Amino acid sequence: MRKFFGRLNNIFFKVFGAISGLTIFFALLLGIVFIRLYTTASQRSRQEQLCHVSEQLATRLGDTFQFGDDEEVLEFLQIFNSFESAELWFVNVNSDIDVDSVLPGISMEIPTNQEEFLDVIEKTYEGKQIASVFYSEIHMATSIVVGTPVRGVGDRMVGVLVSIETLEDLDDAITGIGRMIFVSAVLALLVSGLIAFMFARRITEPIRQMRLMTRDMMDGNYKLKTGIKRTDEIGEMAQSIDMLSDKLLENEEERKNMEQMRLEFFANVSHELRTPITVVRAYAESLVDGVLTTKEQQEDYYGRILRECSNMERLVGDLLTLSKMQNPNFRIEKELVSLTQILEDAVGGVGAIAAEKGISISPSGQFDEPCMVMGDYGRLRQMFMVVFDNALKFSPQGSTIHVDVKCSGGIEVTIRDEGVGIAPEELPNIFEKFYKSRLLDNEKGSGLGLAIAKYICEKHNGTVRVESEVGKGTSFTFTFGTVASAEPEKEEE
Ligand code: ADP
Q: Which letter does DSSP use for residue 475 in this model?
């Protein structure tokens, strides 16, 4: 039972129910109104006709009773009798009149004592024509009964002419009309079933498709599309589902990429750490085994162990910084700082190495102005240090590193070296983690510096771009907004 009602609860049956209900309602309404109008109109016209003919006949009859047979009355009677469903009675109220001269077609006695007939006759006695419609028991049909006074000499009532016309044919017509309405309603029901079916299909088919697709999406298949191209609400919904599947596919791919990057990152970290650990272990073993006899040799090995350890320390430090920067919740503490002061500090920090390599650092532009930004002094210094370190590492002796500052409107800092340069195919990768040059000069490089520098720059709402030409040099340009445009946040890590 429940299952049956469950089935009826689908869209097809709902639409079918609504359309067929409406059809039946209107068919009934139209049928009733039409039958009523038709019955009233035809009854009225037949009653009027019967009254009119009866009136004329009564006048003729009056004459006949007065002056003897009249040709015309016979003619009238003939016409009257030609109506199949009509009948005439004459009720004599004046014994002076010889009604024995039976007129053909007129019954001289009342063959019923049905109250309604007697009522009509009685009322007609009062001298006026009376018309009434009721069910005649002797005719076994609804009938129009007209009582007409018949007047003789001096306008005296001599009798009542009762004309009866049964409405059997009208009943038949009504039955016919009812049957026609019934057939039309059945046809309309069939048509409405067809319309409901097509309409419901137009709604349910795309819904079914969308349901199948969302099930697929639940199973992790995001490549399917609904394929529904419509401009109505269903089309909009299908479009949203298609967009959702696109988004989920994008997210899935992003997740896979992230997973791949994470795996690569761990492989790189392990690799970067394993190499110095192996080296340190080898040196330590040599020292423990007593292979190294001279004090100089032993000191040399201790020195190497120390260098490897500081390299590892730097690498681990970089990794820590990087993991902090990658955390979306990480916020740097910002305060009003002078970018040129930070640059000066960074130049001072690499001054010794630059001097050692005979490389000069030449400032230009608005280097003497404060160029204030909202930022973290230490992090910004670290960012510039990465670029200076690289510039020194990849520049020949005696070359120059140019530091140009512009701070009108936004702030732009360009650090340009005259070093080996970067091949165009390598340029897009240099900000990637662990991407590093295989040059001998870069043995100690971890490939994390520029990745960290870029993160720091972005955390300050800045951008960094690189231009380079192999053999001629490389320039890094950092751009920051003005103090006003920088968010004056002071958030905790
Ligand atoms: P690292 O310097 O530790 O190798 P970075 O992330 O700082 O790592 O730099 C990545 C790579 O970008 C370098 O190994 C090098 O190949 C290239 N690079 C960066 N700066 C320069 C530069 N000024 N001149 C030439 N190549 C550079």
A: E
